[in-house]
Amino acid sequence: MVQADALVFAFEAPWKMNSTPQERQARRSTRIPCEIPIGLTSLDEDRPFSESCLIILINPQGCAARISRPVGIGTAVRLEGLSSKTNVTGRVVNCISLGEFEKSWLLGLALTEPGNVWGVEAPPEDWGHLKSL
Q1: Is residue 107 part of a domain?
Q2: The domain spanning residue 111 has which CATH number?
Q3: How many whole angstroms separate alpha carbon 14 and alpha carbon 11?
Q4: 105 C-beta neighbours (distance < 10 Å), count
Q5: Cα separation of 37 and 126, whole Å?
Q6: Number of domains present in the structure of the chain
Q7: Residues spanned by the domain of 76
Q8: Tens digit of pLDDT for each residue in 69-112?
Q9: Which one, 12, 56, 81, 125, has least CB within 10 Å?
Q10: For residue 32, which of 132, 131, 96, 120 has the smallest C-alpha distance?
Q11: Chain-centre distance of CA 20, in angstroms?
Q12: How many other β-carbons are positioned within 10 Å of the β-carbon of residue 110?
């Protein structure tokens, strides 16, 4: 299980320095830095793949994940290996190259059904009534 208090304590200041108070308020919920290795599998027959990636930022609406290949925006995906043991699906909403020499991409993934699929035991207050799934 991810312990939100420890993660927020360790990373709160650097993440807040990169956004304005207005930007933080516009977000639906606090983003928590983390390192969660998962399998990511395409549900799109036209864009098949299945490979490991590393989730580096989470909130109830989705996550940011580092992966070794570009993935098309709009691709439906399944997140495998989460501690919640539920069938978690989402859609790629962003894919950014991390540089010519990095050979990795940053994906923005929006969950099909928002929730605490990450197993955060003590989520931030603005995650509201969402329970761990």
Answers
A1: yes
A2: 2.40.10.220
A3: 6
A4: 19
A5: 25
A6: 1
A7: 4-12+31-124
A8: 999 999 999 999 998 777 899 999 999 999 888 789 999 999 99
A9: 125
A10: 120
A11: 21
A12: 13
Strands (E), the chain: 32-42, 50-59, 62-67, 76-80, 88-97, 105-111
Residue with tokens 């977000």: 27
Q: Give the model's confidence band at 33: pLDDT under 50 very low, under 70 low, under 90 confident, else very high.
A: very high
Residue that is written with structure tokens 């609406």 in the block: 61
What pLDDT, on the 0 to 100 scale, is given for residue 87?
82
Q: Which residues pair with 41 in a beta bridge?
A: 50, 78
The residue to which tokens 């304005």 are assigned: 20
Sign of the Cα pseudo-torsion (26, 3, 108, 17, in order) = positive
Number of Cα atoms under 13 Å in the Cβ half of residue 93:
11
Q: What are phi and psi of 5, to 5 degrees?
A: -60, -45
| Residue appearing with tokens 């993660």 | 7
